[in-house]
Design brief:
7 strands; seven-stranded parallel sheet; Alpha/beta knot; about 35% helix; alpha/beta
């Protein structure tokens, strides 16, 4: 069987303008002090792929425009809506006021396993991803409605933040897309 790779034109991707007008899944991704601009760019690209509503950058998480973010975002920083908050607690308060259920992606006592998480398609959600070494700040975990943990079966106790984002966003997309 012959499998010819499709060229860019054959992929029928929408324009940035069409993306901005297209329906999104009710998910906001919050980056709490993510330091690597490559990780930030990768999260932008994943959010573009799965039509995430918005990215909120907090603390030391650099905002676009930025050449290092662009290297991995490849323009997704122009399509995905984003905002910056100096403090993630301010972002969480605003999200909760607007009816979002807020989850930190973190290993905690009584965290929910991603594989058993069931979302209400009528709900609005935010997920918080943390610093590459220190994770989500404890005060942010405390302010969240709950925590989600990705089951892992190897010797390491964590995944790269952009890999984690991809897994979590994909799971939310499968449950929330129309």
């Amino acid at each position: 069987m012959y499998r010819r790779k499709l060229n860019v034109e054959e992929l029928n991707r929408i324009s940035v303008k069409e993306f901005r007008e297209a329906p999104k899944i009710p998910l906001v991704v919050v980056l709490d002090n993510v330091r690597s601009r490559h990780n930030i760019g990768s999260v932008f690209r994943t959010c573009d792929a799965f039509r995430v509503e918005e990215i909120i950058l907090c603390g030391i998480a650099a905002p676009p425009p930025d050449a290092e973010i662009h290297k991995t975002a490849l323009g997704a920083e122009d399509s995905v809506k984003w905002r910056y908050f100096a403090e993630p607690i301010s972002a969480i308060k605003e999200l909760k006021t607007n009816g979002y259920t807020v989850f930190s992606i973190e290993q905690t006592r009584n965290s929910l396993s991603l594989e058993t998480l069931t979302l209400d398609r009528r709900g609005r959600y935010a997920v918080i991803l943390g610093h590459e070494v220190h994770g989500v700040q404890q005060e942010v975990v405390d302010a969240s409605d709950n925590c989600i943990e990705i089951p892992q079966y190897g010797t390491k106790h964590s995944l790269n933040v952009s890999v984690t984002a991809g897994i979590v966003i994909w799971d939310f997309f499968k449950q929330l897309s129309e």
